[in-house]
Design brief:
The complex is a heterodimer of chains A (325) and B (307). By secondary structure, chain A is α/β, with parallel strands linked by helices. Chain A has two domains: 4-229, Rossmann fold; 254-325, no CATH class. Chain A is built from eleven helices and twelve strands. The relative contact order of chain A is 0.14. Chain B has helices at residues 2-29, 34-39, 45-54, 61-73, 87-122, 127-141, 144-158, 174-199, 203-210, 215-243, 247-252, 258-267, 271-299. The chains are: A alpha/beta (325), B mainly alpha (307). At the A-B interface, helix 2, helix 3 and helix 6 of A face helix 9 and helix 10 of B.
């Protein structure tokens, strides 16, 4: 296997509220090999965004990293002082956010916003930075790149704005690009373009960690997938295995609740119940409350993330014994 | 953009005309003869009549209004009844003092208000936040005469650091400027704080941080310009009210400015002086708002019309 560009080890992060500690991310390990696209999938509030934000050092108050490490190309970054984190952010590790409508500063020309990272990290003169920006705009498929530099965000469409966001994140050629639901706010045709663009970036050597709740996006794009539920990784495998042979009941539930023209039928499958309250997680498996196969053991004891072969890991008591949950 | 400004200028002319008419009507429907008031109880009726004719007050209202307007356009607001000097000259002289006072007060209020607002927002719920917001509550709730007298008592009467009243060099403007700006400082700091806290939650602030900006860079390059939009509006309103004469402050500190001139005019039923000062204040407010609009579109590209 390739060397890991980003390695998250046993990361835990919580919100400290007046009601108590909300454990949003719980002992999460994720590996992003060089030049690969790795996906995190899960429903809203399962801790996907919080995991990557913690890596970037962008947790919002009252969120805080409680434990764990994040290694970026052989260097631990969570324990770095803020000044050094700033030096890495936007240079070696960059991020694309969910909503391009609100993620660009409305009163600053996009050219200035895109070249900002170059000036911060490379100390590049303005003219040279502009040339770089034009090249990057062309690389992400923004027409009339030169002219667009002096546009304001409100003069651009959603798809163009997300391209600007990607250009902005890629301008320093980061080792790792984190994309937090990069296509959720876009319509489907634009989504396909953006996904193609991300795939192209990856073939240029950048490692990508992408978050999505859209299984279609994950299937199309990722080499390897992590499934998160209630702050924990419940299953991880290469994309093909995960979609062909899902082992965790939650993953299976997720996959069967995707509508498909091929499958037919008139009613969409859903997973019964609701996500557990992160303030009071069950003692055993977090999914036990909604799981059809739940037994006494599941309620009492948290299953380990077991390797069932070929890097396929499942957090379920019934997995890995020849039987499928 | 240019078209917009021209449109606003034209509107401003009509507003000024309307206000001039209103002032004119209001001063005419007040009962009693201003000349009689001016001459005192025992004045000779013949003299009153002669004076009334001299000031043109025996003419029909429409003629008086036309004279007043054509004069005003040429910068001639007539002669003050009570002071016997041209109103324009009196206002020019008084405006110097008002300008100094307003400028210093605004400088004090904005530097203090914006700085405290930013610190309070960044250190939200911290000790400095509480301290500044407590002070700014005093700022917005203490009446100007109270602040003025307290300042006079402490810094002039007890400590003898600064003159207690009158106009004698720039240092005599320091206490009045603080008294006058105190209130504005309070409201500006509160507005800056609340807007900035809101802005710091925006997604583009995360983007700025993700790019590797440090806190100072995030604040200066990304947050402040957005946060200033509502603050600029407030500042425009403040500067126009400061410039159009601070009646109470000027009176307490005996500063011969536009505000004091207006008080004199009212007390003496001095119609030309009152018309002059009122029209002047209106013009200042209109110009202030116009400037705010222009500044607003400089700060926020979304407001600019597509060229």
């Amino acid at each position: 296997m390739e060397k890991n560009m980003l390695e998250i080890r046993h990361l835990s992060a919580s919100f400290f509220t007046q009601k108590g500690e909300v454990k949003a991310v719980n002992d999460v390990c994720i590996e992003v090999p060089k030049g690969k696209i790795v996906g995190i999938v899960g429903e809203s509030g399962c801790g996907k965004s919080m995991t990557v934000r913690a890596c970037m050092g962008l947790l919002k108050y009252p969120g805080r990293v409680v434990g764990g490490e994040a290694w970026l190309d052989g260097k631990e970054i969570l324990s770095l002082p803020e000044k050094e984190k700033c030096a890495i952010r936007g240079d070696e590790i960059a991020m694309v956010f969910q909503d391009p409508m609100t993620s660009l500063n409305p009163v600053v020309r996009v050219g200035k916003q895109v070249t900002e990272a170059l000036r911060l990290h490379r100390n590049m003169p303005a003219a040279e930075a502009r040339r770089e920006a034009v090249a990057m705009f062309e690389a992400v498929g923004i027409p009339e790149a030169k002219k667009r530099l002096s546009s304001y965000p409100h003069q651009l469409s959603g798809g163009l704005r997300q391209r600007v966001m990607i250009a902005m994140a890629m301008i320093c050629h980061p080792k790792v690009l984190i994309a937090d639901e990069p296509t959720t706010a876009l319509d489907v045709t634009v989504e396909a373009q953006i996904l193609r663009l991300m795939k192209k970036l990856c073939s240029d050597g950048t490692s990508v960690l992408i978050i999505s709740h859209n299984l279609g996006v994950i299937a199309q794009l990722c080499d390897y997938v992590y499934v998160m539920y209630a702050g924990r990784i419940v299953e991880q495998a290469d994309t093909f295995t995960l979609f062909e042979e899902p082992l965790h009941p939650y993953t299976r539930g997720l996959l069967s609740s995707v509508s498909s023209l091929r499958r037919g039928g008139d009613k969409l499958d859903t997973i019964p119940g609701v996500v557990p309250n992160l303030l009071h997680l069950p003692a055993g498996c977090s999914f036990s409350l909604r799981c059809e196969r739940c037994e006494e053991k599941c309620r009492e004891c948290l299953p380990d993330l077991m390797d069932v072969g070929d890097g396929h890991k499942v957090r379920c008591h019934f997995a890995g014994r020849g039987e499928k949950a | 953009m240019k078209q917009n400004i021209i449109k606003r200028l034209l509107q401003a002319v009509f507003v000024l005309l309307g206000v001039a008419l209103l002032i004119f009507i209001m001063l005419r429907i007040v009962p009693g003869n201003p000349i009689a008031t001016m001459m005192g109880e025992h004045a000779d009726p013949a003299t009153i009549e002669r004076m009334t004719a001299e000031f043109g007050l025996d003419q029909p209202a429409i003629v008086q209004f036309a004279r007043y307007l054509s004069g005003a356009v040429r910068g001639d607001f007539g002669t003050s009844y009570s002071l016997g000097r041209p109103v324009a000259a009196l206002m020019r002289q008084a405006f110097g003092n008002t300008l100094k006072l307003a400028f210093l007060a605004a400088l004090f209020a904005w530097i203090l208000g914006i700085t405290c607002g930013i610190i309070a927002a960044v250190k939200k719920n911290g000790l400095l936040d509480r301290l500044f917001m407590g002070l700014s509550l005093l700022g917005v709730s203490m009446p100007v005469f109270m602040v003025a007298m307290l300042l006079q008592y402490v810094f002039a009467f007890h400590l003898h650091w600064l003159p207690i009243s009158g106009v004698d060099g720039l240092k005599s403007f320091i206490l009045p400027a603080i008294a006058l700006g105190w209130n504005s400082a309070g409201s500006v700091s509160r507005l800056v704080r609340s807007t900035l806290i809101e802005i710091l939650q925006e997604d583009y602030i995360d983007t700025a941080r993700a790019k590797g900006n440090r806190q100072m860079g995030v604040l200066l390059r990304h947050a402040l310009r957005n946060a200033m939009l509502p603050v600029v509006t407030m500042m425009a309103i403040q500067i126009s009210s400061l410039l159009s004469g601070a009646v109470i402050t000027e009176t307490i500190f005996s500063i011969n400015g536009i505000g004091q001139l207006a008080v004199q005019a009212i007390n003496g039923r001095d119609i030309p002086l009152l018309q002059g000062t009122a029209l002047f204040s209106t013009a200042i407010v209109i110009i202030g708002n116009l400037l705010a609009d222009c500044l607003y579109s400089v700060l926020d590209p979304r407001i600019r019309k597509e060229a």
